[in-house]
Amino acid sequence: MAERYSSFRPGGRRWLWQRITAAFLVIVLAFHFFLLHFVNHADEVSFAMSQARMTQWTYYSLMILFLVTATFHGVNGVYNALINQGLSGSRKTAVKWTLVLASLVLIVQGIRTANAWAGIQII
Amino acid sequence: MSQSYNRGLVEDFGRWREFSAGMWAWIFHKFTGWVLVGYLFTHIAVLSTALSGEILYTETIRALESLLIVRILEVGLLAVAVFHILNGLRLLLVDLGIGLEAQDKSFYASLVLTGAIVVASVPTFVAGVF
Predict the structure, then answer these.
(1) A88 lies in a domain?
(2) For B57-76, how does the pLDDT look when each residue is reduced to its tens digit (9 = 90+)?
(3) Which structural domain, as residue segments, surrounds residue A35?
(4) Contacts of B58 (CB under 8 A, 6+ apart)
(5) What tens digit of pLDDT does each residue of A80-89 get?
(6) How many CB pairs under 8 A join A and B?
(7) CB contact residues (below 8 A), chain B span 34-53, against chain A
(8) Phi/psi of residue B110, nearest 5 degrees
(9) Which of A23, A75, A113, B74 has its CA 20 to 30 A from that of B84?
(10) Under CATH, what is the fold of the domain B20-126?
(11) Distance in Å from the first CA to the final CA of chain B
């Protein structure tokens, strides 16, 4: 049987979710680049143009899902890469919760920014 | 008995001269992943200027986009993202048992296609900066 070489524990949920989010991100990241560099151009960016996109609920929800999946995929990738480099014990626990906290801050800040464009006032 | 894929520790970078295509793909995927997650945090930080008002956001983005170095870094970001996407597709297929025997060729194809897409995108990415 072929030997396994992976950053992930065999059969683990982190591996599965890394792959599920990857399949989604492949399409949405390509769309994001295409829309914001080829359809719209970098030197034409304005608050009003971002606002026009974010006030469409389909675009808003896609971007929120993009933010959450990209954060999970990126941070989970970093966490597994560090485990692969030999991270273990209490340092592993500390890194894990630091990454969880950083992810939450990023997602909250991203949603607040999207809400500023969409005109949604929660807080 | 099927073939063994144990090639030793990839993280032992001192062995880089012995690395096979698949090991380079692994390292490039990790490197581009680190760059992309680092950029994600930077990206949200820059976009957060929208919280301080319409004028500040528009002026910040336009000031950044007027710098040639920012445009060059964006081309670099495109290269990193395109490789990560293409190699990621390669990994998804290999995980499903598709193309394992040609995984070295698909890595080379990812590199070539990344190069072609990036070169073709340069005019669009630097438009308006000169």
Answers:
(1) yes
(2) 999 999 999 999 999 999 99
(3) 13-118
(4) A45, A46, A47, A48
(5) 989 988 899 9
(6) 107
(7) 34, 36-37, 40-41, 44-45, 47-48, 50-51
(8) -60, -40
(9) A113
(10) 3 helical TM bundles of succinate and fumarate reductases (1.20.1300)
(11) 61
